Amino acid sequence: MNKEIEQRIAELREKYKELPPEKKAELERHIKKRNFLNYKKIELVKSELLRLEARRAQLELCDKEKELGLIEKKITCKKEKLLRYLGKQMDQ
């Protein structure tokens, strides 16, 4: 399941990289202006992902495997949620 998510993220990144800078800025303005709630959801998920990634790095250093597994599951769920939100916005 992790590989599937990583593959979808890679596809989304490639799709985003193909866009010219003007289109990227326009897309972000569109999301922020027309779908403000979705924009806030995306920003919230991104900040939660950063926090979870930092926590995962701490747990890796402490060799706490049980907690590390739980954090990785949470990260996977957040990435799926982010993909859903971004996928909706990229398709519009």
Question: Please, could you describe this protein's structure?
Answer:
This protein has one domain (21-91). The protein is 92% helix and 0% strand. The protein has helices at residues 2-18, 21-34, 36-62, 65-91. Helix 2 packs across helix 3 (36-62). The mean pLDDT is 82.
Give the structure's gist in a few sentences.
The protein is built from four helices and no strands.
* Main sheet summary: none
- In the residues, how many domains can be counted? 1
Measured as a percent range, the helix fraction is over 70%
Instruction: Please work out how many helical segments DSSP would assign.
Output: 4
Q: How many distinct beta strands? A: 0
Strand content: under 5%
Unreliable segments (pLDDT under 50, ≥5 consecutive)?
Answer: none
Radius of gyration, taken over Cα atoms and rounded to an integer in Å? 15 Å
Order of helices and strands: HHHH
| Helix/strand class | mainly alpha
Quaternary structure of the protein = single chain
Write the layout of secondary structure elements.
Elements: H1 2-18, H2 21-34, H3 36-62, H4 65-91
Helix pairs in contact: 1-4, 2-3, 3-4
Protein name: DUF465 domain-containing protein
Characteristics:
4 helices, single chain, 92 residues, 0% strand, mainly alpha, elongated
